[in-house]
Amino acid sequence: MSTLVLLLVTGVGLGALYFLVASGLSLIYGLMGVLNFAHGSFLTLGAYAGWEVSRRMSDGSWLSLVLSLVVGAAVGALVAIATELLLIRRLYERHVEQVLVTVGLALATVALFDGIWGTDAVYVSGPAWLDETSGVLGAQIPHDRFLLIGVAVAVLLGIVAFLRFTRFGLVIRAGVENRSMVTALGIDVRMAFTVVFAIGGAAAGIGGVLASQYFGYVSPQLGASLLIFAFIVTVIGGLGSLLGAAIASLAVAVLQQLANFYASGTGDLVVVLLLAAVLLVRPSGLMGARA
């Protein structure tokens, strides 16, 4: 029983990490129709920025971790804004060009990270509390899973509240429904779309810092490896559905943990089979609108 509890709770923690990466992808696609293959680069850069903060403070304190999260989110947002302004803004409604540009950016940034920080992984340390465990129904759960879950819930609630209860959120949702009408009212929809990219980049930056705590290191390939599961989660949940991404993140991560333990490390295979099954039964995803 304790083993099952451990697998379930750690699976939820991993799902929280997947959601932090997938939330930005889902938000940007759902509101703007942009599939951003460079999203993993935002995550990696946020992780390196957080590591630079923590190594300069070198005290393993909560203050160091909080500052790393803030800096990681800020860097992710700034890079996302630059990407939208310089590249994506000229390519709305041109999906093939969007894919080519963002894939090229992803490859170029990995080479850039190699040149700046080297090809070897750099190791990350955090508050001692994160390395400790607490008993839950007889299972010893690492504390970093609780941190991941808490931050993911906060990000989900924050994004939903922003879109529903702020003026910018209203403009963004209206611009998605009828961009020409909103523009005719004298509202700059382009600025609203830039804000969407910034939110997605900030979520990726936060995810990068927490991923470095989860895995214990940062490498140039960190974002690319997590982006694969983020796309799987986004497709299973339904492209553009934030709630669907949250549900799919939990389902994918828990299933992956269970399969790795009970089925000889076949977690990745089982996740791919789940993706295939969802696409066959419901191509729009769990929470996506049917065609």
From TrEMBL:
The record ties this protein, via Pfam families, to: BPD_transp_2
Which CDD domains did the record assign? TM_PBP1_LivH_like (cd06582)
Record GO terms (molecular function): transmembrane transporter activity
The family line of this record is: Belongs to the binding-protein-dependent transport system permease family. LivHM subfamily.
Superkingdom in the source lineage: Bacteria
Q: How does it sit in the membrane?
A: Multi-pass membrane protein
- Where does the record say this protein resides? Cell membrane
Question: What's any GO biological process attached to this entry?
Answer: amino acid transport
The protein depicted here goes by the name: Branched-chain amino acid ABC transporter permease
- GO CC field: plasma membrane
What residue ranges are annotated as transmembrane? 6-27, 34-51, 63-87, 99-117, 146-170, 191-215, 227-254, 261-281
| Keyword set, alphabetical order | Amino-acid transport, Cell membrane, Membrane, Transmembrane, Transmembrane helix, Transport
